[in-house]
Amino acid sequence: MSTLVEIRKLTTPQELFDAAAEVVIRCAQDATEKRKRFTIALSGGSTPKGLFNLLANNAKNVLPWDQTYFFWGDERHVPPTDSESNFRMADETMLSKIPVAAANVFRIKAENLILLGMGPDVHTASLFPGTDALKEKSRLVVANWVEKFKTHRITFTLPVLNAARNVAFLVSGTDKADALKEILESDAPGEKYPAKLVKPADGKLLWLVDRAAASKLKEE
Length: 220
Ligand code: 6PG
What we know:
By secondary structure, the chain is of the alpha/beta class. It is 25% helix and 22% strand. The site of 6-phosphogluconic acid has 16 residues, from strand 4.
């Protein structure tokens, strides 16, 4: 079993969202052809908003929404109506605009393709550096105490992330350039840089990065 890693550098955030939308559509078509269902875990934060808007506005009649099941890689410890809620963000930018049944949406109350973001501190989902959830070997979802926010975050654990067929990181902006260089070009330990621990055991790991985020990577 091995992880297939691909790094795609896009020029602008819009090109990054276009490329990510192609990945979602390809994974959806492949999954529904083979297994009659497509499961996708959404990331939170701000980066995926452009992708969700694009899917809702441009792929509304392309994706098999009736065979698509939505999950979240992590959620903040807030109600779904809160401005901090990852569910609310996805609902406002996409779910409320597409013909998907409520039964297909599995909000974290507080597998095919997993979308992830990455923080400048190299956290992903809510797997923050030095936190307990990084050591989790069996539970799929845990409440992870994040000292810097003085709160718990509900997050997928590495056993789930590394069991996916496809994981796609969307990384945009200069504030992520140092973190991306650490991930892709240093041999620093994963505990310090959690996104480094995401390696789908028998799947594909795709990095979609824009020019700003890739600005500190070695020239090819
Ligand atoms: C969250 C996310 C988190 C996010 C990164 C990047 O709940 O915040 O799931 O892991 O992906 O913090 O966030 P931005 O896209 O806003 O930079």
